[in-house]
Amino acid sequence: TARAEVDAWTGPATTSDGAPVTLLANVADPASAAAAAEGPVDGVGLFRTELAFLASTTEPSVEEQADLYAGVLGPFGTDRHVVTRTLDAGSDKPIAFATMPDEENPALGVRGYRLSFDKPDLLERQLDALKIAGERVGTHPWVMAPMIATADEAADFAAKARARGLKPGVMVEIPSAALLAHQLLEHVDFLSIGTNDLTQYTMAADRMATDLTHLTDPWQPAVLHLVAITAAAGRAVGKSVGVCGEAAADPQLACVLVGMGVTSLSMAAASVRAVGVQLGKVTTVQCEAAAEAALGAGDPQAARAAVREVLEG
Ligand code: PEP
Ligand code: MG
């Protein structure tokens, strides 16, 4: 059965013609990292550090943070990489000691990387802790900033990360970042597309609004065009561009993303096998045709139908 096929999948992921695709897990803490490391994943594409801060009323010390980060890096050893995301506080992720109170529009306010404009030390302590964790585990940490809007922000973040020997990247979650992905790539080593927020900001539809789910759908062709622009920019300079939003866990959409030139997909560990199985059933040429079909569609429903036709014939 299909279920048995999925359960038996052991990786590594390739298309049926042998093109490799990096499949990564999204994790939140040492326990989820240890569980993910047992499975067929190439590493972690998104370690959401804010989840570890949610319970605290005060900022964890550098030592406490270093312990936590080492606990996440450790299970992946030296041969699989972990991408740690710096604190993404604000809006849908309120953190007691970091979130700006009383904003009119918190989704458009001082959140994510923007918190460091006024208070750079919180970000700097996080980077210090990650450097210590990397040294302890003997690995080279990748680190990325959320909610980056401009190339200048990417440059500033990259400088801070490189100063500590960390490999810098930024998330593409704001349309401005996708449109100017080639500029961001002048400063960072990789990009990671957060389709949850990229969809929210492209469609101007709150990701938490249950009555707007037809708009907060990553199959929206406008969102996919921004993903395609970002992937093409990475391909042009030979730098990796991943997707770490919910879109990566949809097996058919995963084929579309690969067809656009996305090099890695990061998702809940439980979704990895189904995506690996689907990729193994299609050729690179089919993925490229699926991408073209989705980009040419007028709405998510038409995009899904056109892609199913290309992939399943
Ligand atoms: C995203 O926005 O797609 C993402 C991966 O980050 P988060 O869901 O944590 O905002
Ligand atoms: Mg996000």
Give a concise summary.
The protein is built from 15 helices and eight strands. By secondary structure, the chain is of the alpha/beta class.
Could you characterize what this model shows?
The protein has about 325 residues and is an alpha/beta fold. It contains 15 helices and 8 strands. It has helices spanning about 1-10, 30-35, 50-55, 60-75, 115-120, 120-135, 150-160, 175-180, 180-185, 195-205, 220-235, 250-260, 270-280, 285-295, 300-310, and strands at about 20-25, 45-50, 80-85, 140-145, 165-170, 190-195, 240-245, 265-270. The protein has an 8-stranded parallel barrel, surrounded by 5 helices. α2 runs parallel beside α4 (about 60-75). The longest helix has 18 residues, at about 120-135. The chain is globular. About 50% of the residues are buried. The model has no long low-confidence stretch (mean pLDDT about 95). The structure holds phosphoenolpyruvate and magnesium ion. It is an enzyme of class 2 (transferase). Belongs to the PEP-utilizing enzyme family. It is found in: Cytoplasm.
